[in-house]
Amino acid sequence: MAVCFSALELAEITGGHWLDSLVVPERVVSVQDDTRALLRGALFVAIAGELTDGHRFLGQAIQAGAAAVCVAKVPDKQIRQMCRRAGVGCLVVADSLVAFQALARAHRCRFPDCRVIAITGSSGKTSTKEMVASILEQKWPGAVLKTQGNTNNHFGVPRNLLGLTSAHRAAVLELGTSSPGEIAWLARLVRPEVGVVCNIGRAHLQGLGSEAGVAREKGSLLKHITPGGTAVFPAETVHGEMLRNLANGVRCVTFGTEDGADVRSTYLGIVDQGYALILEGEGFEKPCRLFWQVGGEHQAGNAAAAAAAAMQVGATAEQVARGLAECRLPGMRMAVVDLDGVVWLNDAYNANPDSARASLRWFAELLEDKGSGAPAVVVLGDMLELGEYASVEHADLLRHACRLLPEATIVGVGPTMAACAIELSLPGFADAASARDYITRLVSGGARVLLKGSRGVRLEQILPEAARR
User: Fold this and answer.
1) DSSP three-state, residue 125
2) Most buried residue among 12, 103, 131, 190 by CB atoms closer than 10 A?
């Protein structure tokens, strides 16, 4: 199994104690916080989250065959009796989430030879993670662990770390944040050899205050790179000096599109049925021209970041080229679906002012290349967590879309975006469900439609059922 801890190790690592000394497991064979995925012989950690409290599921964990449960609240009499009858140990800790994280960190430390790359940034984290993992799969086929789904927070990062086994040669982990201190905390768990900051942009301003606050928070990853490791960050950012200082003297490698970057990308745009770019600089004996299926100039920048990071753990230029060529992004990230004459471009996984502008540039590029004359529709959803900057940023984005795509129909969806759209005499809808009929009628004769918004707006509801992914 991936994880094995003795009863003594569990108590020492978590700082907890066994409630009943007569019922203590010899060992547990995995550590999980979800009863739906619980394996027989596991430790179930009951965590109180935003939506539910794991302590409510102790009975299910016992019935599912848990060897022990970890709790922050002493269970009631009925659960204690169930534990005794089933021989299930009960480990009491001060904070079960902290205990879960401590076990994940301890497990990660069991694999000092595993090459760990941690990735953060205002946008592009998942795309860059997928690119790095695809490259490293060329070097270590089947031996690369990567963040699964949207698991880049206090709960998800430990889950991913607990998936490490002796078969893994590398791990590519995504770290997210919305308030100060989160990245540093997660980085302490991960202990990365390579830390990557994809970009610094206007995201999570409600919690981080300003772009400089974003830079400090994202850059805190670099403070926790292991000795002898490497920090990777954009050459063009105005916060470069701050990031270099946060890197605490470890080697720094920059990426970007300008000559000063250590690893440089040049976006060549649409070529045949895909896209092309050139990578050059550190690690490349000569410029490397490659073709892949990921469009947009911003993604070429992510490719440079991925190449720089992967090369720090031994990937060759050839492996970089093959890995990027084979890379496919997960659903709702620049997904293109042609259905009944309507081309849907679904980039609605998340959004902030910078990533939304990047999507608009990509959409404009596709419209220019196809030259079909089909109507163009841009559906922009609310960009969440912008705090006091929300109204200004939403209005600025709508104006930018109108300038960049003067022939397109621009539609705002979500409370803030709709209000700004209506003020600019553009159609606006409070939510995706109410916008769907309008968009459906608008595209009935064939069109190209871009969907871009924060995850909470759920713009994918506008898609026809057959086009959802």
Assistant:
1) helix
2) 131
Between the CA of residue 264 and those of 1, 117, 236, 343, what are the distances in Å?
42, 20, 11, 32
Of the candidates 327, 330, 322, the one whose C-alpha atom is nearest the C-alpha of residue 138 is 322
Q: Taking the CB of residue 222, how many other CB atoms lie within 10 A of it? A: 29
Query: pLDDT tens digit string along 90-108?
Result: 999 999 999 999 999 999 9
Find where tokens 């772009």 sit: 211
Contact of 429 with 413, CB cutoff 8 Å:
yes
* Cα four-point dihedral sign 127, 130, 133, 137: negative
* E strand or H helix at 448: strand 447-452
Query: How many Cβ atoms from other residues are within 10 Å of residue 388's Cβ?
Result: 9
Distances (CA, A) of 216 to 77, 157, 250: 48, 20, 17
| CB contact at 8 A, 15 and 39 | no
Instruction: Give the pLDDT confidence score for residue 1 in this predicted structure.
Output: 44
CB neighbour list of residue 368: distance below 8 Å, 6 or more residues apart: none
Segments in the chain below pLDDT 50: 1
Q: pLDDT tens digit string along 370-381?
A: 665 678 999 999
Alpha carbon distance 282, 207 (integer Å) = 36
